[in-house]
Amino acid sequence: MKRREFLKYLGVSTPYQHLMLNRLLAAQGGLLLAQLLPLPQLAWGAEGAVPVTELKHWSTPDYTRVSIGLEHEVKFESHKIPGRLYLDIHGAKVTPGIKDLNIGDGLLKSVRIAQYRATTARVVLDLDSIRDYKIFTFSDPFRIIVDVKGERRQEISAAKGEVLESGKPETAAKPEKPKAEPEKVKAAEKPKQPSQFKPGKIRRIVVDPGHGGHDPGAMSPSGTREKDIVLQIGLKLAQKIREELGIDVVMTRSTDVFIELQERTAIANKMGADLFISIHANASLNRGANGIETYYLNLAKTEKVAQLAAKENGTSLEKVSVLQAVLFDLMANYKLNDSAHLADEVQKALYKKALTGYPSVKNLGVKQGPFYVLVGATMPSILVETAFVSNEKDEQKLKDPQYQDLTADGILSGIRGYIASLK
Fold first, then answer.
1. β-strand partners of 125
2. Beta strands 76-81 and 132-138: pairing type?
3. Which domains does the chain have, with CATH numbers?
4. SS3 label, residue 254
5. pLDDT in tens, 317-336
6. Exposure b/e, 345-354, CB count within 10 A at least 16 = b
7. pLDDT band at residue 16 under the 50/70/90 scheme
8. Which residues contact 285 (CB under 8 A, 6 or more apart)?
9. Taking the model in full, what pTM does it have?
10. In 42-83, at which residue ranges do the beta strands (DSSP E only) sit?
11. In angstroms, rounded to a whole number, what is the distance separating the alpha carbons of residues 125 and 146?
């Protein structure tokens, strides 16, 4: 594919977007994208090395994600040799207590970590059978993510849908069966069932209420927290999907707990989800900004979108620019058109439904942006900004159970429309 055709495929069209891409690609110079990351000009000694704080993984028969957490950004390089994929992390030291991972999932045998040199930590992935892999980074805190893919050899059943991670099983061990979430038993008690609706190929949807725990998300001047609002909408949506569409639902969180951004899409990939819906509430320094908008993953077309991505990513505008370069490398295999289609169906239906109770609601349309929470998803995935918590009128709507219910109905209707269009 020629450069011009690829840029068109990515939706790169505005001067801002071309400028950012040209700067980043010029800086790349044929090196690893990871080497774009800024590194303080220090004379690294063992005393000044950045600690490796975490080594985790999420695994399925055809997908494994490995996350390497560090206190600060560092440079690294990767190498693949027969039977192994390894990363040398420069200016880093292995923290006592960081242990190797025994995986044995058919893709990876294990992940080993050691101090290769005084200021170089080496992470070795012992390969079993893989088809492809991608390496990218998240910021604040800095994490190196390795996604390894293979061929699906078995179906993931709903009955065995436990989400297990090596590290914090108490926060995300079973997000699909929380106490606060409507269980399938409750759904069976109610006679309300989908009327002749056929979900087709869509068998499982992951609903992702943004933020949570120590991360409140956006906050209004009066103290309304994004994490609380979107959790309520997410719980309503999950119940409606089960009862009205008859489709299995997994929630990344159903209580007020913190789930890391790289874990959210890992859950969706692990569970073999067919759609990923991340729910958020918007915010702006302009208190007059209001309305509904839906995003799918792509390069930011304007600085305003980049600023929103920085807010949702919990990082800086500079880090978003780095992510743009990473996305340029990842986009060729991303379900761009399917995600754009899903975003369009949800945005239209959500706006139409919201109008029935709130005639003044504003339609901000479908947009694209570099959101961490969507990176690495192997299925059509979108991020819905349900209203502006920073706007006084929007805030009151978000706190209103009626608006929350209408929002869940609108997203549900959009999902229904998307599924119907696949025939």
1. 85, 111
2. unpaired
3. 50-149 (2.60.40.3500), 204-422 (3.40.630.40)
4. coil
5. 877 777 776 666 665 555 78
6. bbbbbbbebb
7. low
8. 390
9. 0.76
10. 50-60, 63-70, 76-81
11. 10
